[in-house]
């Protein structure tokens, strides 16, 4: 004790001696008193500044044996034996050498005193570091400038150094909880004034060093001396993550797998649907999207494979802990309106944390079975200067990945030209009734095209050459563009936080007459009404208006061009679809009598695509509001009570029409949707640290109400007055659908967590949910969870390991049943005169339903090495989902064809691995890489007693069926359909008497689910340039493609007109050497057969109609999702501008597919269509859209 | 302040978690579908389904009496399996619901009359099915979740029971109110004749297979009163609007009008 004081007294007197005489002479006495007080304060402050581990050198006992060691080695030895860290100038300690010293069970205090005796060195303890310095060399302390003012509030002066004692210039020092902060100067010296007396936390941080938080006490008019030594590290203090219900936890104490993505990582390439930007970045989380042509269309998110028996099971999405709807109003064949999460502005997001399974989401009870996506929005910061950020991006979109088509043969069914009688003359013509291209060679023969029969057409009455238009489908697509502008204002003071942001997106789609306009406005703010009472709010408004293209198989839209079209059609002619005389140019019509159409023509199956684009648009618009208002009150230190009111609501209108002049009866329909979900939440949190233990408890309750109404009206039978698209214009009684859906859930939950020595942690939670959708006599369920973690790196301090945690958990979470499943009702039919028939629906409801239950076991390992430079995270999980609610097919003989029951037991197990690191870290060049991969295996253990197979989905085309089944003891989603009949010995295809392939029905092709999914993200920075790229991949999985099948069936696909081994086209007659060479086994003679067969019979009547095996493709792919190349202007360049930073980047989304197993023209990564659960069937994907643009980011 | 908070805590928990499992009565009753249906409405629907059963064109296409364009699938025997489930789940389930009802509304007809008409129509549907498919589930059918695996019964047993049903149903008709929602007839005597005429035809069908039973039932039905005039036929009349039009009219005039 004496030693310390003596030393300081020396220093003070030296200070006084070498200081400023003027001041001293005037206020000598005062300064003396102040300095002594300062000394004592410093000392006491330093004592308090020690970390909670209590490093009293007298109490730390070591045994040490040194032989001919240098002082530096001795110090290293002491470090390895204790948790102490030493700081010293290498030069100072290098002078001491040849130490022979032995001590057994001596205090560090004494050991140091011994070692440093007669060395001219002394040691001081500063914040858990031992600083060794030369006695009487005061240069370190004399550089501190004495605070000038005579009277002042308390202050801090100090110095920031690194482990070698070198100063850390520009280190940042912040007094937490106040607006005082500063940066250290070139010598690492800083001082902060104007602090009122009290306890504070001083946070010192520097780039590439681990921040430190020190507790200090300021007394009035006193200056505290502080010396802070920082260790090299990643700058993360104790990483804190947001877990279920918005409860913040230290990352090390969390016993289950979560993964966080920072907001900046989501706006790399300005994706239009925020969920899409998660793709490839999180292990076990797969995003399968639809084409960008839908502009914000479906992005389906799946965590850990398919867990739900009937395939649904999307995770819950919460924004600042407000649950928001992610409904999807699209269907497989129709417009893809996208899922509602597209209303979130990615620029507002601070981070997204994915809770991957019941272990993490048990606290969400009935909503947590399939994981939770927790989105935290940006808030204002307590900073001296408010921040203004502006971002502008402009990109162009083009269609890509076109299916290769043949351009030799045109419309028709045979190689000879059909003729039609025009004024008695048989004339060659293009037969519009054939929506296939098995016709004659397009050799320029003059023929009467369809358009020549329309009086309004410029080529009316003329014969024009029958020639190919190889780019006709490509020419349909236009160049789209996207303007994305956003601005945000954020700031805050001692008691307030404020952030306001606005985003405007204006898109023109790649299909004609399609567009999207979106506006997002968000505000978040908080006010400390009193030091213990905080009021906060987050308000978000989104407005969407769009006109989107139609996907899938139907007469509306562009997809049918690959499926049923004529290669001779001229897209430029089709574009002039409207004639001056009010008729429309349709190509799929029969030739008229006498060579002229005298009235509007009605197509057989397909409208002119431009007619559909301009005359049959569908508009959707939505106003969305979600947000929360909350109050937080600190009852006493450690105990906080929060109350929140949360809302998510939207009003949406969608309309569509079928215009006169096209296929079908003219009609108009309009749908109005209104939805509101309210959550009233209460949560009390308590945290306390006692000695080595840390204890936390949370207790809360939630009341949720949901209300949804849907009103849709559609005209029937045509219009009274042509061209007036309004429900009142319906010829017959309009079809009306009027739906109301309501639900209420009451919940109570609590959790307890315990930590020991910041190393061992255990966590338990319980939630009780009472749902109105469940039978009234049995509507409450409990969901428990237990998890533990151990940060073993704290126990064994092995050099390369900087962090290591092992974790395990068990949890149960559920999924509520749909409403209205427990009571039966009747159904109505259209009236018969004045009678109103009603019938008993075919589905029998069940008053004994239970919610489905997910039980999960999880274990994992997180490690980081070399001061967090590289690390990995590994998780193994096993999850069982039981009691899924399904409509069981029962024998219709009972009077019902379906019975709603709980059934099924499906098991998922898998592994997830994320490896990330910084392979290159140099002054001007750094490369950070993160790779994730996940494998999920599932098996259906049980369906229902007596039932071994469940039809999940079915597809029928031209009377041929294909099924998606859930079979017991198989992996989920088996595709069953027609396959080639094969010879069992050789595996070759069996041929019938006409050499056509034979087929079997109900062949099981295996599961549609992938084997592996994952992604790889790389960021390289070189000087002022930054480059980042994201790749996602999938191995395995399969899908069935209508587009490919029909492109071949209709004679459009390139392979239907190739040259055969005889040098002739396969379509040439067999007698001329044409035909396609096939090889197989004759089913009658069992001999191998190699022969040439008629190409059209082979492709159209057999493969394209009956052999579905040909059109089943492997869905493996490796895709480049987004690339960004940016340049940050240096401070010198922008010094003259009023901006703080400026970054210009080139961005691209979906630039190319690196590899895919499926043929060109199909996109296995964009199979998601609307609300259908699995991606197994493609009935008409929209064109792959590639986007390229520039992005300017400015902050003021 | 602390006391107030702890009270609020307890109250909040009580409301949300521990006690209140009761919601308002109608919150989980589907408001989008009627929860009550009168027997008359169920009857009307069943009668409307009679047209579906006899107007099916598959048979005509199979034997090439009819052909169609542009899709010729049915004429080329692409559909190979025809199942009867829809007949059970739709008209028959409706009729069974009438027979199982516990409450009858006298304004819709006397109890006997309502039940009798349901039995007669039920017999008509089953007769059609057994003539078409032979052995079908009959005795254990239409029992809902009590029997999801009804077995097939012999056609002979079905025919016998149907004839018994028709006889009893005709006898059950009383002088009370006539049934409402009846699209076929306007008085109950017509139903008696309809039932007996059905029995007569069924008996004729047995003439080679079971001559004794056939003869006995034929004479019994004839003496109980059968159709004597075409005006007494059971005729389902289609209407002009799209929902109630004849399928044949649709196929001939609407679908192929291109």
TrEMBL record, chain A:
Where would I find the TonB-dependent receptor plug domain in this sequence? 251-372
Tell me the PROSITE patterns matching this sequence. Answer: TONB_DEPENDENT_REC_3
Q: Which Gene3D superfamilies match?
A: 3.55.50.30, Carboxypeptidase-like, regulatory domain, TonB-dependent receptor, beta-barrel domain, TonB-dependent receptor, plug domain
**Is-annotated flag, keyword Transmembrane helix?**
yes
Highest taxon of the source?
Bacteria
Offer one Pfam family short name for this entry: Plug
Q: Where does it localize?
A: Cell outer membrane
Is Transport one of the keywords UniProt gives this record? yes
Q: What keywords tag this UniProt record?
A: Cell outer membrane, Membrane, Transmembrane, Transmembrane beta strand, Transmembrane helix, Transport
Among InterPro entries, the record links this protein to: Beta-barrel_TonB_sf, CarboxyPept-like_regulatory, Plug_dom, Plug_dom_sf, TonB-dep_OMP_SusC/RagA, TonB-dep_OMP_SusC/RagA_CS, TonB-dep_rcpt-like
**Topological relation to the membrane, as annotated:** Multi-pass membrane protein
Q: Return the NCBIfam families for the record.
A: OMP_RagA_SusC, SusC_RagA_signa
Annotated protein name in UniProt:
SusC/RagA family TonB-linked outer membrane protein
User: Which organism does this sequence originate in?
Assistant: Niastella yeongjuensis
């Amino acid at each position: 004790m004496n030693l310390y004081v003596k030393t300081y007294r020396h220093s003070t007197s030296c200070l006084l001696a070498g200081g400023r005489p003027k001041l001293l002479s005037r206020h000598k006495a005062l300064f003396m008193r102040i300095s002594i007080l300062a000394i004592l304060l410093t000392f006491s402050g330093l004592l308090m500044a020690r970390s909670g581990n209590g490093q009293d050198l007298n109490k730390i006992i070591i045994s040490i044996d040194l032989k001919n060691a240098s002082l530096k080695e001795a110090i290293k030895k002491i470090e390895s034996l204790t948790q102490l860290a030493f700081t010293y100038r290498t030069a100072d300690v290098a002078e001491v050498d040849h130490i022979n010293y032995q001590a057994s069970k001596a205090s560090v205090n004494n050991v140091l005193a011994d070692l440093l005796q007669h060395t001219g060195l002394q040691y001081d303890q500063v914040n858990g570091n031992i600083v060794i310095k030369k006695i009487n060399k005061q240069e370190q302390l004399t550089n501190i400038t004495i605070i000038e003012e005579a009277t002042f509030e308390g202050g801090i002066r100090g110095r920031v150094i690194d482990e070698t004692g070198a100063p850390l210039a520009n280190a940042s020092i912040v007094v937490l909880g106040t607006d005082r902060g500063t940066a250290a100067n070139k010598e690492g010296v800083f001082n902060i004034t104007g602090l009122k007396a009290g306890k504070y936390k001083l946070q010192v941080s520097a780039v590439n060093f681990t921040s430190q938080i020190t507790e200090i006490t300021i007394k009035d008019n006193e200056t505290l001396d502080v010396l802070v030594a920082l260790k090299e590290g990643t700058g993360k203090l104790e990483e804190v993550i947001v877990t279920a219900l918005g409860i913040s936890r230290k990352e090390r104490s969390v016993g289950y797998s979560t993964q966080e993505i920072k907001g900046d990582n989501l706006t790399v390439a300005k994706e239009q649907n925020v969920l899409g930007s998660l793709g490839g970045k999180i292990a076990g989380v797969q995003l399968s999207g639809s084409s960008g042509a839908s502009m914000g269309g479906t992005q389906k998110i799946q965590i850990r494979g398919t867990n739900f028996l009937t395939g649904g099971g999307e995770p819950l999405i919460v924004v600042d802990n407000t649950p928001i709807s992610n409904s999807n109003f699209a269907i497989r064949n129709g417009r893809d309106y996208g899922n509602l999460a597209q209303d979130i502005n990615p620029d507002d997001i601070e981070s997204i944390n994915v809770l991957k399974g019941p272990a993490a989401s048990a606290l969400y009870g009935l909503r947590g079975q399939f994981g939770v996506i927790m989105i935290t929005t940006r808030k204002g910061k307590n900073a001296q200067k408010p921040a203004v950020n502006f971002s502008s991006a402009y990109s162009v979109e083009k269609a890509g990945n076109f299916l290769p088509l043949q351009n030799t043969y045109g419309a028709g069914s045979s190689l000879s030209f059909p003729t039609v009688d025009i004024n008695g003359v048989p004339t060659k013509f293009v037969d519009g009734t054939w929506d296939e291209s098995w016709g004659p060679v397009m050799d320029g023969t003059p023929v009467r095209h369809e358009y020549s029969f329309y009086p309004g057409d410029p080529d009316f009455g003329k014969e024009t050459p029958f020639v190919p238009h190889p780019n006709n489908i490509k020419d349909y697509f236009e160049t789209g563009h996207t303007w994305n502008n956003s601005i945000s204002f954020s700031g805050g003071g001692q008691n307030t936080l404020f952030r306001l942001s606005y985003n405007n997106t204006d898109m023109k789609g790649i299909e004609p007459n399609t567009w999207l306009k979106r506006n997002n406005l968000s505000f978040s703010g908080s006010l400390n009404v009193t030091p213990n009472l905080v009021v906060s709010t987050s308000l978000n408004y989104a407005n969407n208006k769009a006109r989107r293209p139609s996907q899938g198989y139907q007469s509306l839209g562009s997809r049918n061009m690959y499926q049923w079209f004529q290669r001779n059609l001229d897209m430029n002619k089709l574009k002039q679809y409207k004639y001056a005389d009010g008729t429309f140019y349709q190509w799929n019509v029969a030739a008229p009598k006498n060579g002229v159409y005298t009235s509007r023509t009605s197509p057989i199956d397909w409208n002119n695509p431009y007619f559909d684009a301009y005359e049959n648009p569908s508009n959707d618009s939505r106003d969305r509001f979600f947000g929360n208002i909350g109050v937080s009150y600190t009852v006493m230190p450690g105990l906080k009570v929060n109350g929140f009111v949360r809302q998510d609501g939207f009003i949406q209108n969608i309309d569509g029409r079928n215009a006169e002049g096209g296929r079908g009866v003219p009609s108009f329909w309009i749908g109005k949707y209104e939805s509101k979900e309210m959550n009233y939440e209460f949560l009390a949190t308590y945290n306390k640290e006692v000695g080595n233990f840390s204890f936390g408890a949370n207790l809360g309750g939630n009341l949720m109400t949901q209300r949804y109404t849907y009103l849709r009206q559609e005209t029937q039978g045509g219009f009274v007055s042509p061209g007036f698209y309004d429900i009142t214009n319906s010829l017959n009684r309009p079809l009306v659908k009027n739906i109301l859906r309501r639900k209420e859930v009451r919940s109570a939950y609590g959790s307890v967590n315990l930590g020991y020595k910041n190393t061992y942690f255990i966590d338990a939670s319980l939630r009780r949910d009472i749902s109105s959708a469940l039978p009234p006599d049995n509507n409450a369920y409990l969901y428990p969870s237990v998890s533990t973690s151990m940060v073993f790196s704290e126990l064994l301090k092995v050099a390369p390991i900087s962090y290591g945690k092992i974790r395990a958990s068990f949890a149960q979470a559920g999924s509520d049943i749909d409403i209205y499943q427990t009571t039966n009702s009747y159904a109505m039919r259209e009236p018969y005169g004045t009678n109103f028939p009603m019938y008993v629906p075919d589905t029998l409801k069940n008053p004994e339903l239970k919610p489905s239950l997910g039980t999960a076991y999880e274990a994992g390992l997180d490690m980081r090495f070399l001061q967090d430079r590289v690390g990995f995270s590994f998780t193994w999980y096993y999850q069982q989902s039981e009691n899924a609610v399904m409509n069981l097919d029962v024998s219709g003989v009972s009077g019902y064809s379906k019975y709603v029951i709980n059934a099924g037991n499906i098991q998922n197990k898998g592994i997830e691995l994320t490896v990330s690191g910084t392979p290159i870290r140099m002054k001007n060049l750094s490369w950070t890489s993160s790779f994730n991969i996940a494998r999920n295996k599932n098996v259906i253990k049980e369906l229902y007693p007596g039932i071994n197979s469940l039809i999940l989905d079915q597809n029928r085309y031209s009377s041929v069926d294909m099924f998606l089944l859930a079979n017991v003891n198989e992996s989920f989603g088996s595709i069953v359909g027609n396959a080639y009949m094969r010879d069992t010995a050789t595996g070759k295809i069996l041929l019938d008497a006409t050499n056509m392939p034979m087929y079997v029905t109900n062949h099981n092709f295996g599961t549609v689910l992938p084997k592996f999914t994952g992604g790889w993200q790389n960021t390289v920075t070189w000087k002022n340039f930054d480059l980042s790229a994201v790749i996602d991949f999938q191995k395995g999985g399969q899908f069935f493609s209508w587009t490919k099948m029909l492109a071949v069936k209709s004679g459009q696909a390139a392979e239907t007109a190739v040259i055969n081994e005889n040098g002739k086209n396969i379509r040439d007659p067999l007698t001329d050497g044409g035909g396609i060479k096939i090889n197989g086994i004759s089913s009658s003679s069992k001999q191998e057969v190699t022969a040439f067969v008629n190409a059209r019979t082979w492709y159209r009547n057999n493969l394209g109609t009956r052999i579905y095996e040909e059109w089943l493709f492997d869905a493996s792919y490796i895709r480049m999702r987004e690339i960004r190349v940016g340049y940050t202007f240096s401070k010198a360049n922008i010094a003259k501008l009023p901006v703080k930073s400026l970054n210009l980047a080139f961005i691209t989304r979906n630039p190319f597919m690196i590899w895919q197993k499926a043929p060109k023209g199909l996109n296995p990564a964009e199979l998601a269509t609307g609300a259908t659960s699995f991606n197994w069937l493609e009935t008409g994907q929209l064109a792959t859209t590639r986007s390229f643009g520039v992005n300017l980011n400015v902050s003021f | 302040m602390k006391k107030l908070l702890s009270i609020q805590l307890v109250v909040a928990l009580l409301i949300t978690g521990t006690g209140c499992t009761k919601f308002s009565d109608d919150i989980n009753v589907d408001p989008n579908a009627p929860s009550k249906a009168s027997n008359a409405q169920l009857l009307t629907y069943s009668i409307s389904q009679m047209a579906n059963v006899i107007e099916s064109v598959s048979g005509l296409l199979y034997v090439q009496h009819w052909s169609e364009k542009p899709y010729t699938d049915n004429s080329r025997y692409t559909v190979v399996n025809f199942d009867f489930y829809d007949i059970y789940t739709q008209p028959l389930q409706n009729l069974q619901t009438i027979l199982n009802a516990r409450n009858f509304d006298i304004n819709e007809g006397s109890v006997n009359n309502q039940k009798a008409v349901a039995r007669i129509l039920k017999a008509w549907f089953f007769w059609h099915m057994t003539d078409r498919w032979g052995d079908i589930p009959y005795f254990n059918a239409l029992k809902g979740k009590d029997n999801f695996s009804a077995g097939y019964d012999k056609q002979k047993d079905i025919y016998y029971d149907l004839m018994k049903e028709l006889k009893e149903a005709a006898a059950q008709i009383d002088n009370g109110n006539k049934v409402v929602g009846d699209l076929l007839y306007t008085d109950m005597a017509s139903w008696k004749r309809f039932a007996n005429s059905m029995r007569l035809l069924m008996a004729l069908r047995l003439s080679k297979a079971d001559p004794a039973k056939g003869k006995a039932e034929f004479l019994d039905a004839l003496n109980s009163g059968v159709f004597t005039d075409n005006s007494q036929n059971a005729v389902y009349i289609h209407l002009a609007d799209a929902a109630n039009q004849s399928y044949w009219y649709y196929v001939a005039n609407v679908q192929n009008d291109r």
